[in-house]
TrEMBL record, chains A, B:
Its cofactor is FAD. The keyword Lipid metabolism does not apply. Gene3D superfamilies: 3.30.465.10, 3.30.70.2740, Vanillyl-alcohol Oxidase, Chain A, domain 4. SUPFAM superfamilies: FAD-binding/transporter-associated domain-like (SSF56176), FAD-linked oxidases, C-terminal domain (SSF55103). This is FAD-binding oxidoreductase. Residues 36-214 form the FAD-binding PCMH-type domain. Keywords: FAD, Flavoprotein, Oxidoreductase. InterPro entries: FAD-bd_oxidored_4_C, FAD-bd_PCMH, FAD-bd_PCMH-like_sf, FAD-bd_PCMH_sub2, FAD-linked_Oxase-like_C, FAD-linked_OxidoTrans_Type4, Oxid_FAD_bind_N, Vanillyl_alc_oxidase_C-sub2. It comes from the Bacteria.
């Protein structure tokens, strides 16, 4: 019997398999700060669903672990391969198959990046509104993690835009789920089950995505606040106003200082306000009619003033774009500053004030620096944790997650569990639910070849 | 060992169990036209999740089939019990536990009706926007069928508003899924898997529902069209315009005649237009600002004219409400007129013209009358089928469903599969998907006690 690399080459062509030392460094990790890189035995780059099916059949036959990889920008370690396994990289399956302007749908292969999809939809006056900061990420990866991002407060997350999938089961069958419609009651919703499953249930080979009409005008309001608690209390009010912001981000003063410094960005906030501001809200609005947009900007400004902002600034277009861009890169700023881990707990948004005060206590109680920003409109808090000692760090994370869950939240809003948050997940989640999830995993993947070690031990 | 009825009485109190002939007729059916009624051995009315868990543990122990029932308004026969089984009626679990105005969430027991929830949210300036025509239906039933309705074109369906559940597994554990947040990437999405599972995976004992700010003003535009094809072609244009209609319904001329006649409703359409109109679009818009609403009404009127409508009428409030009400009751009008079955195929909305012409051919080819209306914005077509011969009717339905699926659709958009569409589902659906769904069913319900005969044989 030929060795595994040879047999993979028979499926995809030898030039699309790398093995051993020929595996490039980039395939050994994602962007997670804590994950140990691992060089897979083979990297294989299939061209279509049939090849993916053949790879999975071979893996099942040989009991080989298989990890899917999109762009490797994930923050949970879920695309880090196993040293004894195969990494399936979707880089060659990178075509936008269709922009269907009648049904407002894009059909894409998993390797398509958000940047590419943005360009293709823009040309048609449509938009795929899900906007996780990293536009080099792939749609397959976005489906894998149920990616969120800044616009979720208006449009929802990946889950809400995936109408259907073509997927290969670890048992080798190619199925199609859902379709170019927004609803069905025809059996179990396999689409939604696969979204967010971090490559543990099936490999996605095509996605049908819901598009929206693209709005023509945007405006951005920046509001400094005296403290985080006031910001947190303002969030439900802004959402409840009915104005429907496109973006509603909070950024604490330390993070704002760091990201504007890194981006060399002047926002026109006078020194005396910047010196008192402990946190900021960034509210972006959109509309097709400039008149309506202006009215909404006015209304948001007034509302924020009532809710305790120190002042409000309507940012000029270029400054607004730079700020959003700098916010997207907050992760790299934190990384550059030496952050040891990043978490993205999600909470009921009204629980933010209590969460923030608990965060402060946990940080102080453990001599740890915890700073952050986040998708406040969704109650999704991104915290950078500066603590070199892994045991203390684990304790801090555990306390943060436990607090979030006690307040009705979940460990991760959008980054996922992967390897890196698994210990917390298994420690804190209801064992009955974990057991049920394991049985579901078993229903898809009886031989356990897909991303072993992710989510479960 | 005491008999089952006695043991159920020990769990919920004897006064909350009915057995044998004491079971009221209403429990033997739902609203499905074709389903054979069945009198269950026992009806049990639990008061809380613990009692539900005890009932399921007893059923698992004794191998007794269990069917959940909300208000029994379903249209797939999925709440019709088994003669040898227990019907769990949620009528006593009918409390709105909380309207959380900060997080825009309602927490309800499954027996709460839409009518009750509407009243409670209205008082807070919020709305649960999912609007299946039957307001006496329960939230538990809505979750069971993934109910849709007229406002799905703007707000989505039940699935998009269920943020979390408390559910009892057939293995007896009580779990909580999701929470008061719109997104998470923390393990598999059990909430979405249970939604639409027609009582086959778990019994829902609490639901966390997303609410929206309630808009203050609505306006309704009625547009007669010369034929169904023109209506069908107009639908994607209206959706694509970015105006964001709240309701976008089509009603064919026969159905319009019947429902306005039944409701004794005058719409002010002159005779000469009514005589040529073969179909109608009903477009409802909403806004908080009357000025914006007026502009949008104007824009929609112009657009519909361009798209081929014979004229457009802005309906006065009372007439609009009556028309929507009559549309909701279209099912009963069809039933009264002797319809033999109702289906609700969903399609990519751009496939509507082709589907409508196929429907006409199938109807004529089988000497069957097929008329309808539907949630055109979602591509969800409700057809009343008049054909007494069950074999011919099965053939007609089979051809309609097969055509819908060939055009990229699914058998049911919102009513579900139940018993009544099961033969079609099993004949037409990919067997690999059905097999996977069975394995998922097995993962939840290893002893097969929950709603046996629904979805699968
Ligand atoms: C600077 C920065 C900012 C970010 N901001 C955000 C943000 O705002 N919101 C957010 O949600 N995320 C954010 N992320 C995280 C990351 O971009 C997302 O998790 C993204 O979805 C990962 O996509 P990817 O293609 O890089 O996936 P990868 O990292 O390659 O993989 C992610 C997961 O998906 C699986 N997968 C990949 N392809 C497939 C497939 N075809 N079939 C099945 N499974 C597959 C992998 O196995 C893995 O489990 C950010 C990351 C960075 C570096
Ligand atoms: C006139 C009329 C108009 C209608 N219009 C629409 C429409 O526009 N859109 C639409 O979607 N539907 C419509 N329907 C169908 C119906 O109203 C919906 O299917 C509704 O969701 C059923 O709710 P119910 O409480 O009556 O559920 P039931 O009929 O009692 O049950 C429906 C399903 O849910 C399950 N179930 C009930 N409670 C629970 C629970 N607690 N846990 C788990 N499973 C449970 C049952 O087992 C069954 O499978 C209409 C019906 C009528 C009669």
């Amino acid at each position: 019997m030929a060795d595994l690399g040879t047999r993979l080459g028979e499926i995809v062509g030898a030039e699309h398999v790398s093995s051993g030392d020929a595996v490039a460094e980039d395939y050994t990790h994602d962007e997670t700060l804590t994950a140990e890189p691992a060089r897979p035995a083979h990297v294989v780059r299939p061209a279509d669903a049939e090849q993916v099916a053949a790879i999975l059949a071979l893996a099942a036959e040989t009991g080989t672990p298989v990890t899917a990889r999109g762009s490797g920008t994930g923050l949970s370690g879920a695309a880090v391969p196993r040293a004894d396994g195969v990494l399936v990289s979707f880089e060659r399956m990178n075509r936008v198959l269709e922009i269907d302007t009648e049904n407002h749908v894009a059909v894409v292969q998993p390797g398509v990046t958000l940047a590419e999809l943005e360009e293709r939809t823009k040309a048609e006056g449509l938009v795929y509104p899900v906007y996780p900061g990293e536009l080099s990420s792939s749609l397959g990866g976005n489906v894998g993690t149920n990616a969120g991002g800044m616009r979720a407060v208006k449009y929802g997350v990946t889950r809400h835009h995936v109408l259907g999938l073509q997927a290969v089961l670890p048992t080798g069958e190619v199925i199609r789920t859902g379709g170019r419609y927004v609803k069905a009651s025809t059996g179990y919703d396999l689409t939604q089950l696969i979204v967010g499953s971090e490559g543990t249930l099936a490999l996605v080979t095509e996605a049908v995505l819901k598009l929206q009409p693209r709005m023509s005008h945007q405006a951005t309001v920046l509001a400094p606040f005296p403290d985080l608690a006031t910001v947190a209390r303002a969030v439900p009010r802004v959402v409840g106003s009915g104005i429907g912001p496109l973006i509603l981000e909070y950024i604490d003063a330390l993070t704002m200082g760091a990201i504007t410094h890194t981006a060399q960005l002047q926002l026109g906030v006078p020194d005396e306000i910047r010196d008192t501001a402990q946190a900021y809200l960034v509210v972006m609005l959109e509309n097709n009619a400039t008149e309506r947009l202006d009215q909404d900007v006015e209304a948001v400004g007034t509302l924020l003033g009532e809710l305790g902002s120190l002042d409000t600034y309507v940012l000029p277009g270029p400054a607004a774009r730079k700020l959003i861009d700098a916010r997207e890169k907050a992760f790299f700023t934190a990384k550059g500053a030496g952050a040891d881990d990043i978490i993205d707990t999600v909470l009921p948004r009204a629980a933010l004030p209590e969460f923030f005060s608990a965060v402060m206590e946990i940080a102080q109680g453990n001599q740890t620096l915890v700073v952050g920003c986040g998708h406040a409109g969704d109650g999704n808090v991104h915290l950078a944790v500066f603590q070199k000692d892994p045991e203390v760090r684990h304790k801090v994370l555990h306390e943060l997650f436990a607090t979030g869950m006690r307040l009705g939240g979940a460990i991760s809003g959008e980054h996922g569990i992967g390897h890196e948050k698994k210990r917390h997940f298994l420690e804190l989640e209801d064992p009955n639910k974990v057991a049920l999830m394991r049985r579901i995993k078993q229903a898809f993947d009886p031989t356990g070849i897909l991303n072993p070690g992710v989510l479960f031990d």
